[in-house]
UniProtKB/TrEMBL annotation:
It comes from the Eukaryota. InterPro entries: ACOT13, HotDog_dom_sf, PAAI_dom, Thioestr_dom. This is Thioesterase domain-containing protein. Residues 63-137 form the Thioesterase domain. Belongs to the thioesterase PaaI family. PANTHER family: F19P19.27 PROTEIN, THIOESTERASE SUPERFAMILY MEMBER-RELATED. SUPFAM superfamilies: Thioesterase/thiol ester dehydrase-isomerase (SSF54637). Gene3D superfamilies: Hotdog Thioesterase. CDD domains: PaaI_thioesterase. One of its GO terms (molecular function) is fatty acyl-CoA hydrolase activity. Keywords: Hydrolase.
Amino acid sequence: MDLEKVKRFLEKEDDGKNRSAIEEMPLRFFERFVMQGIRVDLIEPGRLVCSMKVPPRLLNAGNFLHGGATATLVDLVGSAVIYTVGAPFTGVSVEINVSYLDAAYADEEIEIDARVLRVGKAVGVVSVEFRKKETGKIIAQGRHTKYLAVSSKM
């Protein structure tokens, strides 16, 4: 095993030109990068259905939707659905898990269906399912647990 090769892969060393461009990106750039192009198709208490065409910027080396982008969508859309039940804030992630069942390719229309499973005083749990819009075939299923900060009694 070539440990230096692994190190170079992770560190992505460059000549410094890209570093300044990356550092100048706006705050919360990553969320906008993943979410751009998403459309809300249905919103009701406890449920949020969105759709989007898979953009080339979110593809992995195999040319299908990157698992990290899918997990980010579980996080962001899963957090948004918590607002639909009247929560004043969405808290912080405690756990996110994603089961990847199929692939979605560039320009393929997908549907993201987020549902509140439970929102209590301290914890919220949601499920997020990804489907191919044309066939209804499941691409991924996620579950997101969030700690809903309890307001201080001071």
